[in-house]
Amino acid sequence: MFIKHKIIFWGSYQRQVSFVDVVDSAIEILKCIQNESDFGNSLMVKSNGCYIDYSEIDLPNTIASGVNHERDVTFPELGYRIEFRLFIQNSIVYGSFLIGATSPDVVNTFTMSIPMNLDLEKCETRERIKRIFVGVSRSYNWFWGAVINNYMRSKFSYLFRDGRPSTLYWLNYFQADITKGLNQTEYTLLRDKYGVKLDQNIITIDYNLCFNESIYEINNMLLAKLI
Predict the structure, then answer these.
(1) Res 113 pLDDT > 90
(2) Is the N or the C terminus of the chain less surrounded, counting Cβ atoms within 10 Å?
(3) Dist. CA 173–CA 180, nearest whole Å
């Protein structure tokens, strides 16, 4: 099986949000992504069907055009979608995010596909992806995020349900206090045996453990404590 990775974040709807708030949040998210771009200002945002250099785009108008609509009727309560692309290690990376949703039926989301020629076996590549992941995690009101892969997705029937994910991945984010209920002895065991690292809301495990049976023991030990 070819392993495909993707960064995802999910965020709860907000009862009230202004368009200015949406623009400010979009700027924060894009800033985190731009910091990891290659070839200078390579971050581009899609506007009117074309990708335009981020430094040249009218972001408020682009965001406004990304509102959910049907003909001439707009539905800002369903959020605003922004699509982008950038270069990482000579590979084009595509992504999008939906933010500003105020309807309880809508989940705010962020997704960024990781091309297969970006080799996550390499520590340098993982560090760059991690920097983007951590930056985005702090730029919006997300409740969960992970760098998922199709191999693990095939083993679990859902991503997140009833307040908990189905599994941990190499890189994870939780809005809640992730260290609550995890005592020092348990943390030391997980750190020494599985390379588990807890840093505020970020959980990292050894990359290779995402592909063997150890992940089930990690899930049993960590997910029961974290949620």
Answers:
(1) yes
(2) N
(3) 14
